[in-house]
Amino acid sequence: MRSSGRPRQADIARLAGVSQPTVSLILNGGAAAVGIAEETQRKVMEAAERLGYVPDPIATRLAAGQNNLLGLYTFTSTFPTEMSHAYYPFLVGIEEESAVQGYDLLMFIASSVTGERPHAQVLNRVRLADGCLFLGRHLPVPEMDRLLATNLPIVYIGRHDDFGDRLPYIGADYVSAGAAVVRHLAELGHERILYVREPDEAITSIDREAGFRGGMDACGLPATVVRTDGADLTADRLRTWHDRGITAIVTEATDTDAAHLALLAAAREAGYRFPDDLSLATLGDPSTGTGGLTGFAVPRREMGAAAVRLLAQLIAGDQNVSRHQLLACALEPGQTAASPR
Rounded CA gap, 178 and 186, in Å? Predict the structure, then answer.
């Protein structure tokens, strides 16, 4: 005799006086397809409710041919938990849209205790999901290349053209946004504008610099770019730029904001205020620093949601979907830029 516990479909079949295959068809939504009488369906559902039957989610998903799971993996050391973290809005958009699309989320992580990221191991595990979303400034190219050779649908949040059409992505249009920030400064009357960025060859950094240079060129102004990790960005160096006629400085927003934060520290030491002594604009929206920054807003929440929608379409086999999408970034006039004095 079977021990008491979770009821099975066979138990429902005995109570309802029908066969177990009939119960399976009704509980899995296939009753209409084979013309099972409404009275029989009612008896089965009443028996299931009476016994407290709960479908096995694994068996249900296997029967449907998929897990109804979306994977999420970030190439940074940990998933962001602080609301001020630049990646947090991405996660909000991903979570909200996953619920709309009827998917659960499965976060894949690798130990960062030793400072090493065994991406190859994790990227193999992401195939447990129906498809996977990826976050992070730097992709491990060999591992991603191997993953793209499989049939797993994936979407990268950010622009990345190294893999051509093989890697679908949802990115932000940093080139247009950067040019818009430069135009805003030029319209305020600035002609000597300096761009300070980190020595990083991430696609986002390349696009931001391209936007700055394109905007300066369109305004007929010479483009000067300084690369620094912030260590050499001192008050004396800032004073030298100011004495040479620089009236506006543009910084780069990154996940560390190293150059941006160093510039703010140098300005405090030099006694400079924005925009009284210098105008400041940022290509992005740093999570730390001066409030009311002039720059542009990255639509992170919308990007996360759009990435889920694209991934759901790829999982469904949609061949007509646009695999590379860039979302516009809105100009933020802010309070740190004004006409030069």
Answer: 13
